[in-house]
Amino acid sequence: MLKATLRSFLAHKGRLLLSALAVLLSVAFVTGSLIFSDTVSRTFDRLFASTAADVTVSPKEDLDEAVPSGRTATLPAALAERVRQVDGVTAARAEVDVEGLTVVDEENEPVGPTTGAPTLGTAWNPTERSPVELTSGHAPHGDGQALLDSETAGRKDVRIGDTLTVIAPPGSFEVRVVGIATFTTTNPGAALVFLDPRTAQTKLLDSPRAATSISVDAADGVSDEQLKQRVAAALGAHTYDFRTADEQAKSDVEQLGGFLDVIKYVMVGFAGIAVLVGVFLIVNTFSMLIAQRTRELGLLRALGADRRQVRRSVLTEAVLLGLVGSTLGLAAGIGLAAGLIELMGLLGMNIDAGEMVIGWVTPVTAYVVGLGVTFVAAYLPARRAAGVSPMAALSDAEVAGVGRPLRVRAVAGAVVGAAGAAALVGCVVAEQTSSAASLLGLGVVLSLIATVIAGPLLVRPVIRVLGAAFPALFGSIGRMSQRNALRNPRRTGATAAALMVGLALVGGMSVASASMTSSFDQQIDKTLGADFVIQNTNFLPFPEEVTDKVRGTEGAGLVVRGRFTPVAVRLPDGDRVETTAAGYDPRLDEVANITYVQGDSAAALADGRLAMDRDFARDHGVRVGSTVPVEFPGGRRAGLTVGALTDQDSAEGFGTQGGLYFGLATLERYAPGGQDSALYVNAAPGTSDDDLRAHLERTLDPYPQVQVRDLADYKQLVHDQIAVLLYLVYALLGLAIIIAVLGVVNTLALSVVERTREIGLLRAIGLARRQLRRMIRLESVVIAVFGAVLGLALGLVWGVCTHEVLALQGMTALAIPWTTIVAVVIGSAVVGVVAALLPALRASRMNVLAAIAHE
Q: Topology relative to the membrane, per the entry (predicted)?
């Protein structure tokens, strides 16, 4: 049996190649993501471990800043002198590290990275652990000098002697580049500007007595943990945060973890789609191979092989396929990881591909995924093969029938479909977002499984409709192509299922994204009353001097500032909720349209008061007049009175939990040092919008990071952000289509082999080669369009249910992108044509006599 199995596998290796490609893609994305994330993690672990001080003292921050406030947490620089007196300390340095700077050259072009990485301003305090070293020029001295990292200098063609303008939180200032610093370790992609320590304190923190942290070096024989305890005892354990080198490195890695997780989850998403779609392809391939080998399997049974041996033989072939696909997939995954590392290099993150990390988990995962996919996919065909009777060797009977198994599918599909429908209905009627989202996920999974199970039952009614015009358009060729697709509903259903999964995903996400876009458009139209909004390109806050210059712009009338701050509120029901609150100037009503359930803007923005979303207030037992304890950054606390309740759908809370906002006077009292994140500007009487825009753009020309947006621009900004999600979905669709094309090609190729004698007879009675190719192409097109129709129908249901979940968050508009749906159906027909090219060409080149004589 083993010899027979190996010979069978080698005899059909060409037919199994496309299935091996599906395994290869599945394994490649899994292993590529593991290798890439492990390599990047190891690289940054070494970077942070080698550069962290033995002990780092930093300001205590109890609140996470989900939305940037522009506030830089500081501590007294004089602490360094106190720390130096602690037993076991050899050195203590006051550090200055400020993110969110903008640096421009003499032509007012940004010098920093454009990939989302930050531009950092830091004090030049070189030590043995510094990640950079001075490689040309000299160290900065005094107000007007700075160093620039070599990669930024090379990328932007900045040289020693050039003048740069640094736009920092306290304001703008010019520096002359006097030296270039080169990274001795990995550059995480940031641009670094180094200033004299005194200058960094004055220009970046607006105080010569402030620092962002204190770096402490331990004496020989003193452990980091011992030094941490001694420094904490000297300064007060609860006053600041104290971290050892290991703890600081871990904290830095965690901050970077969000970026790495995004890449990892995207890769896992691709891997999941590849695995799911690959399963359909492998099931189809093995089912067809077993159907074609009915006589062979029957002969094995007649010669004495029992059911277990036949089943084991087929599963052994699947394991061999999995081994080959996994091995090739592991190699492809290494190449994919290397490509991602090179891509990161182009984006400014330099990782040495020669230090690629391939841990034992990676190959184990590769073979578990590859072997698992093929084994699971081949199990049902293997069971079917074991049922072949010895008498089948004497006839041309196929294993796959259309009787009882389809009835079983009908029952199973109906049961699973009913459960999925119930979950989706529950999602629609649910009133809590969390429960609605859970039911949506369950409904999507169950409805997908039900459609896959019941797919063959839908083949005949749907394809009869889709191919109804074929006989009229293409005559007997069209009729034969339609009947070929109807001949084996299981095969057609499994082939179309691969395409259906991808199109269901893109259909659902397209409806959801179109609904989100339409809802945001409605909300912006409803709430934004300002002529223009001034914002940073990446939504980071900007210096106060920008606000001052906007206010002084010719034609500018009312200017209302908006700021953000992290807060924690203690609620009457005992909950402590961390969220982001906003602060606004008076006259907010003139630039925003807010629906108040109780109170008004005057009550909301009054000193010591705040506004809150009515639903949030109701859920936590808050009413107008209630006093709510609020925690601000830096440990400040205040009891604020609820002055107004709003409708979150139209509140200027930017979708933050609770919709909290208050007056800027309140914000500046309890969270000083923040920066404006938005300016809402109305034109002065007698000034047109076009004139004001031109004046504002001229005013803001020295600040390339700040943009002037009107209502249409603001909408386009939201559209672009949602489009990023769509691009990911389209990429997943592309992967699904690639594997689906492989599936259609595989099915048609095996079908051609299966119908060799039939094709020979058709050619013998006068069917031309061109007609034969057209017949196979039409068969492929109708299968692909069948998959598209099922997928889009399922996707539309998912999309509508997703909209109901979004509606609970205020996004109530439902939009169906009919243009996208029509384009997908047309594209599916094109996919069918492309997938049929090679099988049709192969069929047309058959020798007629050899085909007729084929057994």
A: Multi-pass membrane protein
Instruction: Please choose, from the candidates 773, 763, 786, the residue with its C-alpha nearest in 3D space to the C-alpha of residue 833.
Output: 773
Would you place residue 682 in the very low, low, confident or very high pLDDT band (cuts 50, 70, 90)?
very high
Distance from C-alpha of 560 to C-alpha of 551, rounded to nearest angstrom: 10
Place of tokens 């006599």: 849
Q: What is the CA radius of gyration of the chain?
A: 33
Beta bridge partners of 515: none
Rounded to 5°, the CA angle 199-201-203 comes to 60
CA distance 778 to 775: 5
Residues with Cβ within 8 Å of 351's Cβ and at least 6 positions away in sequence, in order, are 39, 40, 43, 186, 341, 344, 345
Amino acid identity, position 302: A
DSSP-derived 3-state class of residue 598: strand
Find where tokens 């979303």 sit: 613
- Chain centroid to Cα 413, Å, comes to 32
Would you say 164 and 213 are in contact if contact means Cβ atoms under 8 Å apart?
no
Rounded to whole angstroms, the Cα distance separating 447 from 421 reads 7
> CB-hemisphere CA count at 13 Å for 792?
19
Tell me how far apart the alpha carbons of residues 46 and 51 are, in angstroms, rounded to a whole number: 8
Residue 437 CB contacts under 8 Å (≥ 6 apart), including other chains: 427, 805
pLDDT, tens only, 319-376: 888 888 899 989 998 988 888 888 777 766 667 667 788 888 889 988 988 888 788 8
**How far is Cα 787 from Cα 804, in angstroms, rounded to an integer?**
26
Q: Which amino acid is at 50?
A: S
Q: Which of 456, 454, 29 has the alpha carbon at shortest distance from 277?
A: 29
Band the pLDDT of 705: cuts 50, 70, 90. confident
Query: Residue 828 and residue 355: Cα distance in Å, rounded?
Result: 43
Task: Name the residue ranges covered by the structural domains of the chain.
Answer: 1-53+270-398, 61-238, 458-529+717-854, 532-709
Cβ contacts of 69 within 8 Å, gap of 6 or more: 541, 563, 564, 565, 566, 633, 671, 674, 675, 677
Please give the Cα distance from 394 to 399 (Å, whole number). Answer: 13
- At 88-140, the pLDDT tens digits run 999 999 999 998 889 999 888 888 876 667 888 999 988 888 888 999 999 99
